[in-house]
Structures are given as structure tokens and as C-alpha cells.
Design brief:
Elements: E1 3-6, E2 29-37, E3 53-56, H1 58-64, E4 72-75, E5 89-98, E6 103-110, H2 116-132, E7 139-151, E8 158-173, E9 183-186, H3 190-195, H4 199-281, H5 298-304, H6 317-325, H7 331-350
Length: 351
């Protein structure tokens, strides 16, 4: 059986209740509210619990927390913002979820334009709480639900909620709420947050910013040093590449020069050989007559290539061929000599 429970009979620790001037809609001031902690008993007994504490498990929370979506938040001016007033609704819940740190959260917005007095009241007391560290003037939130409960097996002072339906919540002073670990906070612009800080907090923030600035300066110097070293390395690499390219060009030029020199030497040798052949194979003839070719004998052919004839320079074709085979000549050169000698031996035989 569901019974109505209102969590508003004990104190809790909360964050500042703050509202934002900036936004896309003039009548919406976003808020964020931690309604209760899961898996732990409440700090006080809510109305309707018969003096016992309430505990909501994470599994039950996950199953029924979405029932708060679309419900309203109210505030009680008559009783000094220490209780619920369901007929004075000033905000609406748009989102409900459970965080990893074990809290049930709701997000939504306050009708800031419709309730400027509520906005002014919250800002005034939050300013006192921040300036003088008066936690009793901080605002929190207290949930409203219809729930089915049973006695806890591990603690007779606790009721375990086995199912619930969220019907709303109330904005009230922190000292009046049931869950001490519950918090209610709304987004605010940075300038307002700074204005609400104590001098000690501002000094601590300035010191932190100074430390961050010094760290950034040191990091920038390190980056500049690294950049300089990288530039130096790049310059050295460029110089090395240029030197290597010059060496490659020089090597290629030297190779081309060596090839050209070899070709020139070979051409000179060929020219010398041609000149020698002309000198040895031609005789001077009277002017106007064609030069007569002088044919080298087989013995001369052998002698020219380092061989020698036997038996006083007389040699037959067979002996000539044997002498040629003994010479260190290639097959083509050996064949050429044999053909030259063969023609001469053939002429002698025909005579």
C-alpha cells in the first residue's frame, strides 16, 4: 500500500541554491538538485514514516525515479521556507537520473520571471550563507512521494522503500530537509559566483590562477626551446642533404669523366693501331698510281700476336693453326688469323 511521505524533518548538507540570468528563455532559470542518497537511510524521519528512517535502494531508484519528471517544486513562505506548500509551485522537473556517486538527481527550471520574489529571496540568503558561512541559510530540496515500504531486515528503525511514485519536491532551508547529503543547486553566471565568494576564497583562486599562469609560462618557454632545437636540427639535416647531393653530383661527374677518359684512350689506341696497320700494309707508289697492299706472311701474323714460326720461318697451314691455338687469343681472333693465313697458303699452293 502506498503512503504519502514528505522529507522535511531533519537537516542536510547542501550546495548553494543559485540561478542563472543567462539563458534562451527569460522565464527559465535552470537548476540541478540531488534529492536523496541511494542505499543509505535518511538522516531524519519524513512525514508519514511513523518516526522511522527511510532507505531507497539503487535498484528501486532506477525503477521509479522517472516518475518525478514533469512534477513541480514548491516553496513555503508562510512557515519560513522550512516546510512544503504544494499549492505554491515555482519550478518544474525536466530530467531525473542516478549519478555514479550514489545520488538521485533531478534537473529543471524555476519560473524566474513569474516569481521574482522567490529568486530574490534565494539569492539573498545564499549570499549570507556564502559570505558568513551560515549553512542554516543555504537552500536545499525535500522530495515528495507516495511509497510502499516494509521494515528493514537489518535495522528495525529503518523502512525500506520497495516502490514509489514521485509527486514533487520543495525548496527549503537546508536545516529543514530530511537527507543531509542532499543538495539543490541551480546554474549561475561566473560573475555572480565570484561576487559571492569570500576574500579568502578569492585569494585562494587568485593564487591558483597565478600558479597556473606560471606553469603555462614555463611550458611556453620549454616549447620555445624545443622549437628552436627542432629548427636547428632541420637546418643541419638540410645542410647534410645538400652536401650529399653535391657529393652525388661530384661522384657522377667523376664517373662520367673516367668513362670519357677511357673512351678517349681507347680511341687513341685504335687510331694508333690504324696508323700502324696503314704503315705496315701499304707501300709508297708513284704519283697518280693506287697504293699497293702489302700482305703480311703467316710468320708475321704469328709474330704480331706474340707467336713464332718454326724451321727458319717456314710454316705450313696445319702448323700455323697449331701455333695460333697456343696463343692467348679469343676464339674470334684465332679464327680470323686462321682465315687470313689460309688464303695465303692457298695462293702458294696454286703457284
Amino acid at each position: 500500500m502506498l503512503k504519502t511521505l514528505k522529507f522535511s524533518k531533519a537537516t542536510m548538507r547542501v550546495q548553494d541554491f543559485q540561478m542563472s540570468d543567462a539563458g534562451s528563455h527569460p522565464n527559465k532559470a535552470p537548476f540541478k538538485c540531488a534529492l536523496f542518497a541511494v542505499d543509505v537511510p535518511s538522516d531524519g524521519s519524513p512525514g508519514g514514516a511513523g518516526g522511522k528512517l527511510i532507505r531507497i535502494s539503487s535498484s528501486v531508484c532506477d525503477q521509479y525515479l522517472q516518475t518525478f519528471v514533469g512534477m513541480a517544486l514548491n516553496i513555503d513562505y508562510v512557515n519560513g521556507m522550512a516546510d512544503h506548500d504544494p499549492r505554491f509551485k515555482v519550478a518544474v522537473i525536466e530530467k531525473a537520473y542516478r549519478s555514479l556517486d550514489g545520488f538521485a538527481w533531478i534537473d529543471g527550471y524555476i519560473y524566474a520571471k513569474d516569481f521574482p520574489d522567490v529568486v530574490a529571496t534565494i539569492r539573498y540568503y545564499n549570499g549570507l550563507a556564502a559570505e558568513y558561512n551560515w549553512s542554516e541559510y543555504q537552500f536545499g530540496a525535500s522530495l515528495e512521494m507516495e511509497a510502499s515500504v516494509q521494515n528493514a531486515e537489518d535495522d528495525e528503525t529503518v523502512l525500506d522503500v520497495i516502490e514509489f511514485c514521485g509527486t514533487g519536491a520543495a525548496i527549503l532551508f537546508a536545516e529543514a530537509a530530511a537527507y543531509k547529503t542532499t543538495s539543490f543547486a541551480a546554474k549561475n553566471n561566473k560573475e555572480e559566483e565570484k561576487n559571492k565568494m569570500t576574500p579568502e576564497q578569492i585569494k585562494a583562486m587568485e593564487d591558483s590562477m597565478k600558479a597556473v599562469t606560471e606553469s603555462i609560462t614555463a611550458l611556453s618557454a620549454s616549447v620555445a626551446t624545443v622549437a628552436s632545437e627542432v629548427t636547428s636540427i632541420k637546418s643541419e639535416v638540410t645542410t647534410m642533404k645538400a652536401a650529399k647531393e653535391q657529393d652525388d653530383v661530384k661522384t657522377a661527374e667523376e664517373a662520367a669523366a673516367a668513362t670519357l677518359k677511357a673512351a678517349e684512350d681507347k680511341a687513341a689506341a685504335l687510331e694508333q693501331e690504324i696508323a700502324e696497320l696503314k704503315a705496315g700494309n701499304t707501300t709508297t707508289t708513284p704519283k697518280g698510281d693506287e697504293p699497293q697492299r702489302k700482305t703480311a706472311s703467316p710468320a708475321q701474323l704469328l709474330a704480331k700476336h706474340g707467336g713464332k714460326a718454326e724451321a727458319d720461318g717456314e710454316i705450313d697451314y696445319k702448323s700455323f693453326c697449331a701455333s695460333v691455338d697456343a696463343l692467348p687469343l679469343s676464339a674470334s681472333e684465332s679464327f680470323k688469323l686462321k682465315m687470313q693465313a689460309k688464303a695465303q697458303f692457298a695462293e702458294k699452293e696454286s703457284v
